[in-house]
User: Which sequence fits this backbone?
């Protein structure tokens, strides 16, 4: 079924409101920022994209399997676009959000998977929200899973490259990025105790173990 941009945005609002634990008509309309209306939601129910139980703003919304599959593709494209614009182009989060809103409606599944692979299959968007897996992520886990590991799995002197950072705290993710911890950057473990010390190119960074566990790297063969 070919869906309109408005329906895409409505499904995105239902998805995010469900993540927040409040999938109600009122919440979805608020999250839809003027695009989503009660009439649109009723139309989507007729198209069997979602079901509404109850009346008024407190009515509960649930996506059908078809609605959820489509919402998943939209959300995945949006959040990967945010990562691409922030991590590769280095623009602000606000600019990334605007760009992602346009990208999400035009990215084909193949291009979305290509972006995901380029970024190292990140688990979270710059806002810290989960990025739904794609087929490329599942294949990567099966084929090269042992190659990608948390920085805590490195041995002293072992070389690697940053694959992605899976931190829910956006401010901390931004701080790490400003220090050079970004996809593709060479990294080496220098110390494990009392804190983990990583050398990213020419910068040494000391982080707690919980943060080091969130920095995923692609292991390399050579070690000093």
Assistant:
């Amino acid at each position: 079924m070919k869906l309109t941009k408005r329906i895409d945005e409505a499904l995105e609002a239902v998805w995010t409101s469900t993540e927040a634990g409040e999938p109600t008509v009122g919440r979805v309309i608020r999250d839809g920022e003027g695009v989503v209306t009660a009439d649109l939601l009723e139309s989507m129910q007729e198209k069997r994209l979602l079901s509404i139980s109850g009346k008024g703003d407190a009515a509960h919304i649930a996506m059908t399997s078809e609605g959820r599959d489509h919402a998943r593709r939209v959300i995945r494209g949006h959040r990967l676009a945010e990562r691409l614009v922030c991590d590769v182009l280095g623009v602000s989060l606000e600019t990334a959000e605007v760009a992602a809103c346009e990208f999400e409606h035009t990215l084909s599944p193949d291009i979305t998977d290509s972006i995901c692979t380029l970024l190292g299959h990140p688990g979270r968007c710059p806002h810290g929200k989960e990025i739904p897996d794609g087929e490329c992520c599942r294949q990567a886990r099966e084929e090269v899973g042992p190659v990608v590991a948390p920085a805590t799995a490195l041995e002293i002197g072992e070389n690697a490259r940053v694959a992605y950072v899976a931190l829910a705290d956006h401010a901390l993710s931004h701080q790490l990025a400003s220090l050079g911890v970004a996809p593709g950057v060479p990294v080496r473990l220098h110390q494990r105790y009392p804190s983990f010390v990583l050398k990213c190119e020419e910068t040494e960074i000391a982080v707690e173990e919980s943060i080091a566990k969130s920095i995923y790297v692609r292991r390399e063969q050579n070690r000093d």
About this structure: The mean pLDDT is 85. Strands lie at 50-53, 60-63, 148-150, 158-165, 186-191, 196-200, 203-207, 215-223. The longest strand covers residues 215-223. The two ends are 56 Å apart (CA to CA).
